[in-house]
Design goal:
This protein has about 800 residues and is of the alpha+beta class. Among the domains are: about 130 residues; about 110 residues, Immunoglobulin-like. The chain is built from 36 helices and twelve strands. Strands 5-6-7-10-9 form a five-stranded antiparallel β-sheet, with no helix packed on it. The longest helix is centred in the middle third of the chain and has 20 residues. The protein is elongated and about 110 Å long. Its main location: membrane. It is a peripheral membrane protein. This is AP-1 complex subunit gamma. It is found in: Cytoplasmic vesicle membrane; Endomembrane system; Golgi apparatus.
Length: about 800
């Protein structure tokens, strides 16, 4: 290809290249020819060569060597060369390039040019790539052009002023008077630029709000003229008069009317007129209506106007365009807390959106449906949500299950309904629920004493039909172990009676133990259930002893340890087995989510420091347990057995054994565990993040982050990321979940392991990502010091 070919010929040859290598060769040859011609002092085809170079740049190939040629062409007196030069400057230069400073003087000269087209080129270039220094130098020229008589220039100057205000906010005062005067213009382009400029001035400097609120009547009149004007082919888009200008004015009114009664009152009638007279059948009309709704919801509008806005969003839900349905549900999600009754009217339409094929629409519909659940509609809404859970995609199943659990816990009409709902979720999506679901359900079952028989029968039937859902398997094993005697009686009024034998129950639990689908945790639940049944059945105790002894040599250490301990109960402490394996008491959950089995709660202190009561003195025992105590010099004093122990023990030997174990547990009775101190490192918008150092050595630290939520709605998609200096190694464990329940009903924890050689360099930067009320949020936290742990 000859280097003197025209631009069209070069484009044809490049497009005709059959391979990437052939295309690269063509471009390299052409670039070499362009470089050679750039070096010539007198070259009449400079603009032609730069145009070809800009096309090469658009294809992604390097074209930086044409920057100085742009500067030369901008300084030319020919409009054709200036046009290519300014275009090249906008494409090849930016504010970081030193060459951009060389065109400042040329732009200043062209801003005073007699031709409006040359002035327009300079204004467009400054608005596109002007640096802070260029903007500061040329701001007076832009302010002068805002007062020009030519509407074409004033439109360009207004947009250039927007760029200057974004670069240097303190220069906004220079453009404030001109922005006011531009609102009296009739040209739509000038009005559009003026509204954008005023919006930018108000957002950059809130002090300007008071001044520009005086222009609200003028903006309202401009908007009314647009709404009531007849057909204008110059500005009409799908039957809407200049929707772009209408949208910009509505956004500005939203800013001016926020938290201001006078401004809000001045625009209420206009917003009602726009909401009722705008046709939503076209996309342009829908855009205007959407901005109207956002403005109504953001200002201090009348209640009837807010209901009208919610009804518009309800109509959007019936639109065939999925994008419109999506933004409608996003807006409803934001206002459901403040206008709950108005949103409830569209509950049926929102629930129908759960069947949409689009995953994004489904997710928004799920979040909004969960927010609409109340005590009045809990049964009907839960029916729809459970139906959705059975067919929803895997990526939404966890979120749906968590939302159903929270709604059921908050609005459950009865304990039986609550238990049935959770069991339905476990049967449908047991593998996608949070880790705390199992202990929470167990706590609920123990508290409902009148439903023990009903629950154990229902869980047994679920267990023998399917053991894939591990959460369901764990709860079922626990209930069978606790209330197996009720299952064997076969007497239950709430459910169809089912005759179950001891062998049937043991077969079901052994199936869990032997199944390859069972997790180690599920096997542990099953083994414990089998052991507990040894005190609730009479004919198969030998079979239970055999099963337990088999798992004493299991490869799973946790399961092996349980089996060994249970074997010891059978062999050495058979007299204590009935007392050890009796039913668990009712598990009460305190405000922090801990149960009465948690070692950090208050009753443990009473156990470690028993009150002195009347008892009997036992002579020095000679068993192995006392030999163990003698290693610590603790077996010589006489042992005191309380009345509680003597009343439950059948003989003195049993009393001795029970008392020795109490003393063994009380060896560290004077060393009460001190909880590790925690510090709040982040608190914003109801989200609180606490840091706690659990363990600390000279070379490592274990840190636990605990996130809680005090707002009225759940925080979803919670993600915590951490960064440390290069001298520190970081290992993050999996978080406990990604949903933080509302009103402090639960927390999300994440453990971080830090290894280092120099503790002085220990710092951490944490980034939090989450969604609150449908809005994606991201925050950064710098941690420069860590609290000391309770045990070093």
């Amino acid at each position: 290809m000859s280097p003197s070919v025209c631009l069209q010929e070069m484009i044809r040859v490049i497009r005709g290249a059959r391979t990437q290598g052939e295309e690269r060769g063509v471009i390299q040859r052409e670039c070499a020819a362009i470089r050679a011609q750039f070096r010539q002092a007198d070259n009449g085809g400079r603009s032609h060569n730069l145009a070809k170079l800009l096309y090469v740049h658009m294809l992604g190939y390097p074209a930086h060597f044409g920057q100085m040629e742009c500067v030369r062409l901008i300084a030319s007196s020919k409009y054709s060369e200036k046009r290519i030069g300014y275009l090249g400057a906008m494409m090849l230069l930016d504010e970081k390039q030193d060459a951009s400073l060389l065109i400042t003087n040329s732009i200043k000269n062209d801003l005073s040019h007699s031709s409006q087209h040359v002035q327009s080129l300079a204004l467009c270039t400054l608005a596109c790539m002007g640096s802070a220094e260029m903007c500061r130098d040329l701001a007076p020229e832009i302010e002068r052009l805002l007062k020009a008589s030519n509407s074409y220039i004033k439109k360009k100057a207004a947009l250039c002023a927007v760029h200057i205000v974004r670069k240097i906010p303190e220069l906004g005062e220079m453009f404030t008077p001109s922005a006011h005067s531009l609102l009296s213009e009739k040209n739509h382009g000038v009005l559009h630029g003026a509204v954008i400029l005023i919006t930018e001035l108000c957002e950059r400097n809130p002090d300007n709000l008071k001044q520009f609120r005086k222009s609200v009547p003028e903006l309202v009149q401009i908007m009314k003229n647009l709404v009531t004007s007849g057909y204008s082919p110059e500005h009409n888009v799908a039957g809407i008069s200049d929707p772009f200008l209408q949208v910009r004015i509505l956004r500005l009114l939203r800013i001016l009317g926020r938290n201001n009664d006078a401004a809000s009152d001045a625009m209420n009638d206009l917003l009602a007129q726009v909401a009722t007279n705008t046709d939503s059948s076209k996309t342009a009309g829908s855009a205007v209506l959407y901005e109207t709704v956002l403005t109504i919801m953001d200002i201090r509008s009348e209640s009837g106007l807010r209901v009208l806005a919610v009804n518009i969003l309800g109509r959007f839900l019936l639109n065939n365009d999925r994008n419109i349905r999506y933004i409608s549900m996003t807006s409803l999600q934001k206002i459901v807390q403040t206008d709950h009754t108005a949103v409830q009217r569209h509950r049926g339409t929102i629930v129908d959106c759960l069947k949409d094929q689009d995953a994004s629409v489904k997710r928004r519909a799920l979040e909004l449906s969960l927010a609409l659940v109340s005590a009045a509609n809990i049964r009907s809404m839960m029916k729809e949500l459970l139906l959705f859970l059975s067919t929803c995609p895997p990526e939404l199943r966890s979120h749906a299950a968590s939302g159903i659990f929270n709604a059921a816990e908050r609005y459950a009409p009865s304990q039986r309904w609550h238990i049935d709902t959770i069991l339905h979720v476990l049967v449908t999506a047991g593998g996608d629920v949070r880790d705390e679901t199992v202990p929470n359900l167990i706590q609920l079952i123990t508290a409902a004493s009148e439903l023990h028989c009903y629950t154990v029968h229902k869980l047994y039937r679920a267990l023998i039909s399917d053991i894939v859902q591990q959460s369901l398997v764990q709860v079922a094993c626990w209930c069978i172990g606790e209330y197996g005697d009720l299952l064997l009686k076969g007497e239950c009024e709430e459910i169809t009676p089912m005759q179950v034998t001891e062998d049937d129950v043991l077969d079901a639990l052994e199936t869990v133990l032997q199944s390859h689908m069972s997790t180690p945790t599920s096997r542990g639940f099953a083994l414990t259930a089998i052991m507990k049944l040894s005190t609730r059945i009479t004919n198969n105790v030998d079979r239970i002893r055999s099963v337990v002894s088999i798992y004493g040599s299991c490869i799973d250490v946790e399961l092996q340890q349980r089996a060994v301990e249970y074997n010891a109960l059978f062999k050495k402490y058979d007299h204590m087995r009935a007392a050890v394996l009796e039913r668990m008491p009712v598990i009460d959950r305190n405000s922090s989510g801990q149960t009465n089995g948690d070692p950090s709660v208050e009753p443990m202190k009473e156990f470690n420091q028993p009150k002195p009561v009347q008892g009997v003195l036992i002579q020095e025992p000679a068993n192995q347990v006392c030999d163990l105590l003698d290693l610590l010099g603790d077996s010589n004093p006489p042992l005191l057995v309380t009345n509680d122990h003597t009343s439950t023990a059948p003989n003195s030997t049993n009393s001795t054994s029970s008392n020795v174990q109490d003393n063994l547990l009380d060896l560290l009775g004077g060393l009460e565990p001190t909880p590790a101190p925690s510090v709040t490192v982040f608190e914003k918008g109801g989200l609180s993040l606490k840091l706690q150092c659990d363990q600390q050595t000279e070379t490592s630290t274990t840190v636990t982050f605990t996130a809680s939520n005090s707002t009225q709605s759940d925080i979803t998609g919670f993600n915590l990321q951490a960064a440390v200096p290069k001298s520190v190694q970081l290992q993050m464990k999996a978080p406990s979940g990604d949903l933080i329940p509302a009103q402090g009903c639960g927390t999300v924890t994440q453990t971080v392991l830090l290894s280092y050689t120099n503790k002085a360099n220990l710092k951490m930067r944490v980034r939090l990502s989450y969604s609150s009320q449908g809005t994606a949020c991201q925050d950064m936290v710098q941690i420069d010091s860590f609290p000391s742990p309770a045990w070093s």
